[in-house]
Amino acid sequence: MAGDIRNDWSMAQAKAIHDLPFPELLHQAQTVHRTHFDPSAIETASLLSIKTGGCPEDCGYCSQSAHYDTGVKATKLMKTDEVLSAARRAKASGAQRFCMGAAWRSPKDRDMDALCEMVRGVSDLGLETCMTLGMLSPQQVEKLKAAGLDFYNHNIDTSPDYYQEIATTRTMEDRLDTVENVRKGGIRVCCGGILGMGEAEADRIAMLVTLATLPAHPDSVPINLWNEIDGVPVQKNAEPVDPFALVRVVALARILMPASVVRLSAGRTGMSDAWQALCFLAGANSIFVGDQLLTTDNPAAWRDQDLLARLGMHVAPAKPSAEPAPVA
To answer: Considering only CA atoms, which of 324, 316, 313, 253 is closest in space to residue 282?
Structure first.
């Protein structure tokens, strides 16, 4: 049945769906989408870099890696009051969820009290909380859960086969271990990847199959377009993503993971309104709002408001539960 939750997808099954004639693919994706979500509703989130640059990882796409000269200046962890001021501005701009990212391999235990204080403070503002801090131990997950963290983001970035081409300081297994630690610790998982780093079509499909065959699907699946960054290794292999190729990936994510929120993340500044509308039709139902993500630009708030108004769409009400209510 359309919208059934499965965790046994094969590459052959996923490729067959991905390669459907475009009208049929979008029809199937929209049918699944309507089973679990209001097709006119878009969730909104805001992203703040609470500790920028100086990361010891060598991820070849990242401007914040200490291995590359990208012009990004390393900073210390922000103070809680600074973070809360940013969270208030995000809420005033229409964000429902506030995501806090730190350029670390993993947080140090000495930072955990400050991080938990941020979570509690943002939650008290009436915003959903999300963090992305690198790898987490079960003990760190337990502390963040106790502080009230709603979501944890830890992307797998690409397929298992292509991952070794973009990072050597940690493995795909390391990433999946953190995702599992988060899931077992009772924090909702946000996990997706990046398109346009020189990967093949098969890698994009395999990335989604990897997520769709986890013990539980991620609650949120961000789909990023790689932004051009001088000084990083991915720059030499990166290729622009064909608009229809992105829509196919969004549709496949929607069909493989029916109840997961699919977020258009980095790269929207290079997308036309029509391109974004096609992605919404294919099942994307979340965007980042605010002028900046971690270190890259994002569409101005008025542009997103104008786009949703012209499409007759609206911002979805925040849900306290991880289980979205099906649309009648």
So the answer is: 253
Q: How large is the average pLDDT for residues 250-266?
A: 96
* Residues 259-288 pLDDT 10s: 999 999 888 888 999 999 999 999 999 998
Report the pLDDT value the prediction gives residue 70, as an integer from 0 to 100: 72
Residue 99 falls in the annotated catalytic set: yes
190 assigned to active site: yes
Residues 6+ apart with CB under 8 A from 107: 115, 133, 134, 136, 140
Which residue would you say has higher pLDDT here, 73 or 223? 223
DSSP per-residue codes, 139-206: HHHHHHHHHT--EEE---BS-HHHHTTT-SSS-HHHHHHHHHHHHHTTPEEE--EEE-SS--HHHHHH
Q: Is 263 a catalytic residue?
A: yes
| C-alpha span between 265 and 37 (Å, rounded) | 19
pLDDT bin (cut points 50, 70, 90) of residue 3 is low
CA–CA distance, 262 with 253 (Å, rounded to integer) = 7
- Report the pLDDT value the prediction gives residue 149, as an integer from 0 to 100: 97
Angle at 288 between CA 169 and CA 134, to 5 degrees: 20
Of the candidates 223, 237, 203, the one whose C-alpha atom is nearest the C-alpha of residue 61 is: 237
- Of the residues 97, 183, 188, 263, only one is catalytic, namely 263
Please tell me whether residue 314 adopts helix, strand or coil conformation: strand
Element (H, E) at 13: helix 11-18
How far is it, in rounded angstroms, from Cα 63 to Cα 194? 14
Query: Does the active-site annotation cover 34?
Result: no
Q: What is the DSSP letter of 292?
A: B
Selecting among 116, 190, 191, 279, the annotated active-site residue is: 190
Catalytic-residue membership of 55: yes
Cβ neighbourhood burial of 263 (10 Å; 0-12, 13-18, 19+):
buried
User: Which one is catalytic: 59, 116, 191, 279?
Assistant: 59
